[in-house]
Specification:
The complex is a heterodimer of chains A (321) and B (460). Helix content of chain A is 38%, strand content 21%. Chain A has a 7-stranded mixed sheet, sandwiched between helices. Chain A has 2 domains: 2-182, Thiamin diphosphate (ThDP)-binding fold, Pyr/PP domains (Rossmann fold), CATH 3.40.50; 195-320, Rossmann fold (3-Layer(aba) Sandwich). With 321 residues, chain A is of the alpha/beta class. Chain A is built from 13 helices and 14 strands. Chain B has 3 domains: 10-85, OB fold (Dihydrolipoamide Acetyltransferase, E2P), CATH 2.40.50.100; 102-213, no CATH class; 241-456, 2-Layer Sandwich (Chloramphenicol Acetyltransferase). The chains are: A alpha/beta (321), B alpha+beta (460).
Amino acid sequence: MAEMTYLQAISDGLREEMRRDEAVFCLGEDIGAFGGAFKVTDGFIEEFGADRVLDTPLAENMIIGASIGAAIEGMKPVAEMQFADFIACGFDQLVNVAGKLHYRQGVSVPMVVRLPSGGGFSGGPFHSQNPEAWFIQAPGLKVVAPATAEDAKGLLISAIRDPNPVCFLEHKGLYRHVKGEVPEGDHAVPLGEARVAREGGELSVIAYGSSVPLALQAAEELDEDIEVVDLRTLNPLDAESILASVEKTGKVLIAHEATRSCGVGAEVASLVSERAFEWLDAPIRRLTTPDVPIPFSPPLEQAVLPQLDDMKEACRELLAY
Amino acid sequence: MSSSPTETQSVEIVMPQMGVSVAEGTIVEWSKRPGDWVERDETVCLVTTDKIDVEIPSPAAGRLSKILVEPGDTVDVGTPLAELDASARPGEAHPEEHHEEPEAAQATEPARQGETPPAPSSGDGETDRSGFHSPVVRRMADEHGIDLSQVQGTGIGGRIRKRDLVALIESGGETERPDQAEPAQAERPLHIESPYRPETPAPAPAETEAPAATPAPAGEGNGAPPTEEILPGERRESMTPMRRRIAEHMLESRRTSAHCTTIVEVDLHQVVAARREQKEGMARRGVPLTYLAFVASATVAELNGHPILNASIDGDEIVYHDDVNLGIAVALESGLIVPVIRHAQRLSLEGLASEIARLAQRARSGELQPDDVVGGTFTITNPGQFGAVLATPIINQPQVAILDLEAIVKRPVVIDDESEAIAVRPMTNLCMSWDHRALDGAEAARFLAELKARLEGWER
């Protein structure tokens, strides 16, 4: 075990798989000589060479398209979007080609798209988005969003080994702020399994990504019997873990930084009301960013993104209900 | 539960001065409960004055700590309505919370018998929710044979929470109460045959003093007989505050004034021609020119020569008003409201038309201020767009008369007495209800005759 930041853990996982499997390579904007906008691939070109660490033009549809082609031919590409927001330019390739090839032609597309996402650093409307719901709406894509350093490494390794296209959302706010013990060497965390981050009996906070540390801090500061479930994989959802927690507590707060409407929270709420209605002791609540673009202005950004105080208030209200 | 009541910074929310003429207001409802977090300028309650509903904004951000005036109560301007803890932070527990320890509070009955029933936690402004049971509460009550009417809830509004039942079951509470459990159990067989959930006992005589007697809210589905008998095919809704006020005012007026209605028939062909000429010009300036504006203009001019109709009655005295403050009745979906055009005698036809349109718009969008609807000296009502031709309106107290403009209908009329020629003319009826205490029929008829003459001979 070594202590790593979330960012170092991603880097470690990617390096581990590239060392283990010749078929794995990465591509993206400025990931080679420059080492990536956030330095995830720092030192990669020196170790693996320019053939396996490809600097591409600023053309996301080309990055995704090339990845699909390589994947069909037996490679395992790991594409980096410099910011998750830019995936919109490669959207058609991703949802209409990568996501559907298996269903149309029985062809496996084992690729990973790394998506540095999220706000909180005054990045404005084009560099702060949490677009995970777009991909959940497109059948054929798996969607992963780790919250800890250990999961960042372990889920990335599983994503690379998965035969399906996987969208891997790395929250930029966690890159250097989240640290943890990470197993060295081969460490795979299975996709599709949630994790109970904190045990509790009075309220379930279902969260992922940046909302997990927020929920844990709120639970500690409130000093209440709150359970925090870290979804880790958003598609496929781990319904059993969600339902087990709800059946234990009877109260549900779903928290994510992505916008509200038709988001993961809506999906989880629907699942709970369909399958755990008789265990509910309170209305299902969501804590999300409202349906607006993320503003540049720091106070405005703070006003729209869920904050610790918002999390505590939502927990408090549900506990009192 | 780590809350320690440190020094709190209490801010009072007071009944605001909503207009020069408003001295008191009535709370309609609270949109926040004690314990709720409130942002600055967020609405905390709805207040109704004589005719207008006003949303009261919070003067500061904080946690609502206490509600001092209950819905339905009327208090003077300046009276504190609620207290806000401005030193609170969102997410913190507040001192009022958790004051009942679950274990102690659950198995209420033997200990608390004869005390206040659990329902009235509404004393501090909370809605009583003790009758609502969440899915999990119903399920657990079913599984463990718990009589929910015997459990005191610790949730918001006295709601029974899952934790209340868990505590009860863990303490073995439901079996340790033979004196209470017996009657509840005795009732159960009756309900096994009924279509209702077996968990709810019928109101047994033995329990009449128990909290079960508190009527459950509708929709609770427990099979208890409703408090009021509702026949099939009926539906009951309580009146909105506005509806109640209209009802009060109308009855009060009927009781107060000696209503009498006089009607004149008016040929509006000159007015129709004048409107046709001026309509476009005014429309360009954003003013819709209606027939109501013509009638209002003529009425204001005639009131000048008939001060008894621009008056009000105060005890044994008649109060004559120098200004004509003209009330215009506006129909809303929710009721009727009468905004007032002040100093109407100073306004031209276009000025009146513009004011009528402005006030009607404000009335429909709910933007009227309390001062907009008080101080009228004469009222015009105009429901004629639906085609009715006669009405006997009710006087708007304490005024002396109200004029009703009905539909304008084309009719053949004799236009020249000598030749007895007949022509088709746009005719309407002006129906005026007046107070026989203040004036007599001759005066009312004279006023209407002059009003008729002014409209029929409208000078363009």
